[in-house]
Structure formats: C-alpha cells, structure tokens
Amino acid sequence: FSTQFVLSGNDTLQRAKITNLDARYEYYPGNGQLITASVFVKHFNNPIEQIARPDVMNEISYKNVGNAINYGLELEFKLNAGSIFKCDSSSFLNNTTLFTNIGFIQSKVDVSQNIGTPYNTRPLQGQSPYVLNAGFTYSDDKRNLSLTATANRVGQRIFIVGTVNDADIYENARTVLDIQAAKSYFKGNLELKLNIKDALAQQQLFYFDLNSDTKYKENDDKIFSTTNLGRVISLSVSYKF
After folding, report:
1. Phi, psi dihedral angles at 18 (to 5 degrees)
2. Whole-angstrom Cα distance, residue 171 to residue 66?
3. How far is it, in rounded angstroms, from Cα 84 to Cα 78?
4. Could you report how far apart the first and last alpha carbons of the chain are, in Å?
5. According to the model, what pLDDT value does residue 90 have?
6. Cβ contacts of residue 212 below 8 Å, gap of 6+?
7. Any idea what DSSP says for residue 14?
8. Rounded-to-integer distance, Cα 180 and Cα 178, Å
9. For the segment 92-123, what is each residue's pLDDT rounded down to a tens digit?
10. Residues 235 and 220: beta-carbon distance below 8 Å
C-alpha cells in the first residue's frame, strides 16, 4: 500500500563488502563544545540495491551491482551561543546551544554495461548527495524552562532503480522540523510539555526522473506518488509525587 509495488526476494544475492578510509580532525573549544571535520572514501563490492523488476509489472526486488564508490566531507559543531558572539553578559545566549551536522556525499555506480541505460554512472540507490541536521537548545534552570528545535533535511535520492522501460524513481528532498517546549513548576514536580512534530508538513514526493538530472522539475519529470504526512501536535502534563 505504501509503495504500490509487490516486493519479492532474490536468493542469488551475494554479500556486499565495503572498504572504508577516512580522516578526522577534532577541536574542543570549551566544556561540552566541539568542532569536527571528516573526509571519507567508501568502496562497495557487490552493493545491494532495490530495483524494479523488468520482467514483471509493479514488482520490486533486490540485485547486486558490480562496484560503487562514495566519497565526501562531513562537518559537525556544537557550540554555546554566548561564546560565538563573545557576549558573556547575555543569559539568553549563554543558555543556548547551537548544533549541526552536515555531510556532502558523491556517489557513483558504474552502469555503462547495462543495456538501455541513458547514462554511464548514477548515484547509489538510497544515497543522498547531502544530509543536514541542525538545531538549537535553550535551557534556563532558574525559570525551569527549555526549548528545543531540530531540523533534518535529506537530499533527493533514488528510491527504486528503474528498468529499460521506466526511469529511476527518486524521492524528492524535504525538510522535517520538530519543536519541543517544556516548563516545570513546584520544584520540578509538575511539567508541561508541548511537542510539534514535522511542523512544516512538507509533501513527500516520489517522481520518475525522465531527464536523468536527478532533480525534480515539474515540467520535465513525472510524479509517481505524493503523500501529505501532516504535522502532529501534542500537549502533555506530568506530575511527580
């Protein structure tokens, strides 16, 4: 129901093997703070991908592809806002922590020997060109108040590898924003908590990449399916006896 495809196995699959090489730099500017940078290369032998079966309509399965390579850069930081802006007198900034993790990944699979493929290389199925996590946390112990907001964005990625007759199906990029606010009373015994999940409620979109540029273009590509996931808002009250 969720993919509109029947899913079948493949008893001829071989084990995928991955060789990793990475280098990482870490710097700790203060208590609970960090700045890191990493570069990496991953070589895949017999990676397993989710594909559309060319001999059966509306059925997906799994298949080994010869070789693939991923390489990229990952950056991460967790810093106190007061130290960033050099404002030790601001209680708001000193109580605020900013954090982010972002990765840029280039992924290549050699498909030059595949009959009917309009390109020689393509991204590995399921691999996004970038992944971003970011947010902030504000915590005031004097007022028993905390606020957290986190955002996650995953770039467009192949959902199902296509066939000679059909183009690859991609999942479009979307941003998920979650927010939580909490306030305590009576020495922390009573707590009110508000949660907003997927506050932006962006549409989840899958499309046939007809022009083979990986990006969704309304006039060039064809929509496979869309889902309006909606936001979830909840309010909870707890009391400790």
Report:
1. -125, 130
2. 23
3. 11
4. 46
5. 67
6. 118, 119, 167, 168
7. -
8. 7
9. 888 899 999 999 999 999 887 765 666 778 99
10. no
